[in-house]
Amino acid sequence: MGALHVSLPMETTRRSITFNRNLLIASTAITILLMATAVNLLLNRLVKKPIEQLVKTMSQVEKGNLNVEVNLGTQDELGRLAKSFSSMVEKLSYAQRELEKEHQLQMLQVKHLASLGELAASVAHEIKNPLAGIKLAIQVLDKNPELAASHQETIAEIMHSIERLDKTMADLLSYSRIRPPELQLVSLPEVIEDAFSSVKEECQLAGVRVEKRFDPTLPLLPLDSQQMARVFLNLFLNALQAMPGGGMLTIQAIRHESGYHLQQGFPTTGGTGREEGWVEVTVTDTGEGIPPQVLGEIFRPFFTTKAKGTGLGLSLAQRIIEQHHGQIFARSKVGVGTTFYLIFPIFPTFPPAAKGGAG
Ligand SMILES: Nc1ncnc2c1ncn2[C@@H]1O[C@H](COP(=O)(O)OP(=O)(O)O)[C@@H](O)[C@H]1O
Ligand SMILES: [Mg+2]
Questions:
Q1: Which CATH number belongs to the domain containing residue 308 in this structure?
Q2: pTM exceeds 0.70, yes or no
């Protein structure tokens, strides 16, 4: 039995362990650092720079410069995004150029129409006076007792033609000289009754039944009663002309709360957000109706399907209504009838802020 005492110096081993640990930590740190730098560089090159380039181009586009293009030169998602963006901008730019062209064309047409209106007015004016002279002369002739019966017939025909010409001239003049409306708070049913009184007899003669329904809560409206009576008269005459064999004419005025035009899915009435609701007037006939392909034309000046029409009634009505901040449109079914809708905003204050001038 004995004891062996072995003594080993651990100093070297410990130092070696420490060294190795430090080496490991250092190399790990360096590797992480290198990798981070590499990832950063890669991200920078592949993602950040292209995105920055894209953002820069986008903000240029936002400022209205459409003559830009981004080409990242890569085929990855970002490259494709840039390509789609460029092609979108190109399409936008094309659309903008087309719009500009269209706008210029329209401006030309507006100018053309304006001068046409002036020309029409001066021609109408020139013709009105001699026409009045001819009318007078014919009336004098008509009173001549020595006139043969056959001549009387001719004279009646001439008178008839003169009256038609007179009406056309009056329409033309009023069309080209619509003054701005003189607004006064008036009762819409009164204006409608006033216009209706001139066609009452014709309705009876044509066998047209009439029904009028006026909402008792209708407010007074700021209208030019003279102009508005013309509008209704035109609508009533059109309705009567569409029902030569008799029928039914319904005139209705109701009040709607705000948001009406949106609810109904009608074209926007250009609501300003200041209105406290809308008044809707409808004039409905059970006449021949308007074919869909014609419906889009009826408000165009001089558009008529009638042998003796001037084609100015509805365009005049539209201009007057628009000057009253309102809107007019029609719905129709061939063989069933036609409804004209007139929509007026109700403003909390009177007079409402002016909108647009007269032609
Ligand atoms: N109530 C209606 N029913 C059927 N067609 C209508 C009606 N109102 C208008 N129209 C159509 O719209 C056209 C234009 O009307 P308008 O401008 O008043 O001119 P005009 O009555 O002189 O023809 C008419 O020629 C007709 O074809
Ligand atoms: Mg008419």
A1: 3.30.565.10
A2: no
